[in-house]
Specification:
2 copies of one chain form a homodimer. By secondary structure, chain A is mostly helical. Chain A has one domain (25-158): Winged helix-like DNA-binding domain superfamily/Winged helix DNA-binding domain (Arc Repressor Mutant, subunit A, Orthogonal Bundle). Chain A is built from 7 helices and 3 strands. Chain A has helices at residues 20-23, 26-47, 52-64, 69-76, 80-92, 114-134, 140-158; strands at 67-68, 96-101, 104-112. Chain A has a 3-stranded antiparallel sheet with strand order 1-3-2. In chain A, a hairpin with a 2-residue loop joins β2 and β3. In chain A, α2 crosses α6 (114-134) and α3 crosses α4. The first copy, chain A, is elongated and about 60 Å long. At the A-B interface, α1, α2, α3, α4 and α6 of A face α1, α2, α3, α4 and α6 of B. The structure holds a DNA duplex (30 and 30 nucleotides). Chains A, B: This is Transcriptional regulator.
Chain lengths: 160, 160
DNA sequence: TCCGAACGTTAGGAGGACTAACGATGAGGA
DNA sequence: TCCTCATCGTTAGTCCTCCTAACGTTCGGA
């Protein structure tokens, strides 16, 4: 059924073998955390035939209503050159409609379809599961604290 | 001087435009945090002609003494197929020596040279600066807490 | 009217994390 | 002892994400 190689799992098997200096580097921990997060969400989403970028785009359309591609790009953080293919896939699946903006010929207006809205509800549940799997070792309080700290870092480095 | 394109900075300029649902996803925050971390450490390290992988390898040698390539791979989390090139670069710069293990012809024994040890001291300072730049918006207590939580996640998902 | 900016699009590159496969070597069991 | 299987270093190549460069079109301000 699956032709592509399973996304594997290398990395250290024995965490205690990792030098303390490396183990406590925030840059390294974030990188490794992202790898775990990728592995988990990629697995769940591809099993449903979706991608992270598609999900982010659908959420943004539900949240902010119809928008141009560059607005979607800005809000999702997905590069506008990558957004093209994302919307291509979503349009093909009829989760989204792409029409020229009558007031500005340069823009497309992207709209969420009912099918897209329904699809999004499915993906919402899937994404909730990925959060749970990723944060499994943390208590609810710790999860909230982690998210808060990560938001602060993201906001700081995204600003300007 | 630099022939390669500067690693830019796209992403949302206005964080408030990002849907709340996306903004609070741990998977997304980790991904974005890793991007910021990458940008910062990549910038500082390439300016010094080094890479993250080289640094991790040097640290591991200082911490655990001479080791085979597969041991280094295990301890750093760098894939053994990538370790080849890392050690190639370090050997060429004479920061490291690679000699066949007399007790096991399959292995190489990698040793840190005095030059490598000195190089490592320079990089240590650089890496400290990257941590500081990345974690700038957090207090010392928050930094420690973030690191602790990220370690828990990494340990959990790295185990077995 | 002209110039510069914005928009969507295509092509492509860098870097990280892998898989697959190879030859050589080692170790354990029949 | 012989055979089998695992391990080691190595090469080649894949996938994904993030990002640059350039293009033609369209808009808007001086």
């Amino acid at each position: 059924m699956r032709s592509m190689p399973e996304r594997g799992h290398h990395g250290p098997t024995d965490p205690s073998a990792v030098p303390a200096r490396l183990r406590s580097l925030a840059t390294r921990l974030l990188g490794r955390g992202a790898v775990h997060a990728d592995r988990i969400s990629h697995a769940r989403l591809t099993a449903a035939g979706a991608t992270r970028w598609q999900y982010a785009t659908l959420v943004t359309l539900r949240d902010g209503g119809p928008a141009s591609q560059s607005a979607l790009s800005e809000r999702t953080g997905i590069h506008r050159s990558d957004m093209v293919a994302v919307l291509g896939g979503l349009t093909e699946a009829a989760y989204v409609e792409r029409a020229p903006d009558p007031t500005d010929q340069r823009r497309n207006i992207v709209t969420l379809t009912p099918a897209g809205r329904s699809r999004l509800r499915t993906l919402d549940r899937l994404v909730d599961q990925t959060q749970d799997e990723l944060l499994a070792p943390l208590t609810p309080t710790e999860r909230a604290e982690l998210i808060r700290l990560l938001q602060r870092i993201d906001d700081h480095h995204s600003a300007r």
